[in-house]
Design a protein that fits this description.
By secondary structure, this protein is an all-alpha fold. The chain is built from 5 helices and no strands.
């Protein structure tokens, strides 16, 4: 956000202005966003993979390219679903101790009232893009590593 010149100046500036507690500003909102994010993304990925495997592939596992696409769709779905939580987390983190919100629910209600649904979904486009790319890489890597471990385990048996 251009508030600091680097990590060291950010840490010293935040501690000087708000104390050590300022380093954790928005942490509860971060957890509120992160926990549902992980749950939604893994459930979406597994359901999409299962449906693709059973409906399109006749029971065969998707290949790496298909896994990448399924991972991207799971990431995009999750990004859209959790954007309001990310907006709230970001507002708390940027405001620090000077936040105008009294809590997470107050932040949600205030943003919805003052900015409408559009405010709760601010930045959804870029977020979908980078999380889709992340989903492609993460889930493809996860599946390839899983296959490698299965092969290694079979060789030892």
């Amino acid at each position: 956000m251009g508030m600091y010149t680097g990590v060291q100046s950010a840490v010293t500036g935040i501690v000087a202005k708000e104390g050590v507690r300022g380093l954790f500003s928005g942490y509860s909102a971060f957890l509120l966003r992160e926990l549902p994010f992980d749950a939604i993304e893994f459930v979406a990925y597994e359901q999409l993979k299962l449906n693709y495997k059973n409906v399109v592939k006749g029971g065969e596992d998707p290949n790496a390219l298909e896994t990448a696409v399924i991972g991207a769709v799971a990431g995009a779905t999750t990004a859209v679903a959790t954007t309001p939580l990310d907006v709230i987390k970001t507002r708390f983190m940027l405001a620090g101790a000077s936040s105008k919100y009294t809590g997470i629910l107050n932040a949600f209600a205030t943003i919805a009232k003052e900015e409408g649904v559009k405010g709760l979904f601010a930045g959804v486009g870029p977020r979908v893009m980078w999380i889709s790319i992340g989903g492609m890489i993460f889930f493809t890597t996860m599946e390839e590593v899983r296959k490698a471990f299965q092969v290694a385990g079979a060789e030892k048996a």
